[in-house]
Design goal:
single chain, about 0% strand
């Protein structure tokens, strides 16, 4: 009897949980949506190209020894005047566009994932503090200095993430992580402080 009771209350195995998730409504709808499946495949290909860029990229855009100004501004490889060695053509410095995209995606993934992790750490703690203090410690007053700093800093040229910004060239990555993380921490802190489970922990006056 004890063995039967122990078996009845035993937690489900990882395999059983995965099977239940696979048979769930979300997975069922996902498998039957061609757009979702194709989007996932494209996303995985982009991530794989970024992660394995040093090994699968045709060229290394950061290796100045491999650059030649005679190859500058070449059209894509399928155009008559293009070269097969540069599938998407080259820029004004002779760098392969495809390789630049793959190596640039590595920086985008690093800054994006690190800034989200940093925002979660700062924002959740900020929200917990705001929900606990209450009054002047509301999410807006606690997060205001962070929002002000990040909003101003994000306009600095050193932290812009566009194609011509320093982040795209591999510089100021740590500063970009901090700025984007602080900016995203504001709404995360506000949501955390607004949850009933946290607001109930306010001090009773």
């Amino acid at each position: 009897m004890n063995d039967v009771a122990a078996t009845a209350v035993a937690p489900p195995t990882i395999r059983a949980r995965l099977r239940a998730a696979w048979d769930g409504d979300v997975a069922w709808s996902f498998r039957r949506s061609p757009v979702a499946v194709v989007s996932l495949v494209v996303f995985l290909l982009c991530v794989a190209a970024a992660v394995f860029a040093p090994w699968i990229a045709p060229h290394n855009p950061f290796d100045l020894r491999t650059l030649s100004l005679s190859d500058a501004r070449l059209p894509p490889g399928w155009v008559e005047s293009g070269k097969a060695a540069f599938p998407l053509g080259t820029d004004d410095q002779g760098r392969d566009v495809l390789s630049a995209i793959m190596f640039g995606a590595r920086i985008s993934l690093l800054v994006g994932l690190a800034s989200v992790a940093f925002a979660m750490i700062v924002g959740v703690r900020l929200g917990l503090l705001a929900g606990y203090l209450g009054g002047k410690g509301n999410p807006f007053s606690c997060a205001w200095p962070t929002c002000t700093f990040s909003s101003r800093a994000s306009r600095w040229p050193a932290y812009r993430t566009g194609p011509s910004g320093p982040l795209a060239r591999g510089g100021h990555q740590q500063g970009g992580i901090y700025v984007l993380g602080f900016r995203s921490a504001c709404p995360i802190g506000g949501i955390t402080a607004a949850l009933p489970g946290f607001t109930m922990g306010k001090k009773k006056r």
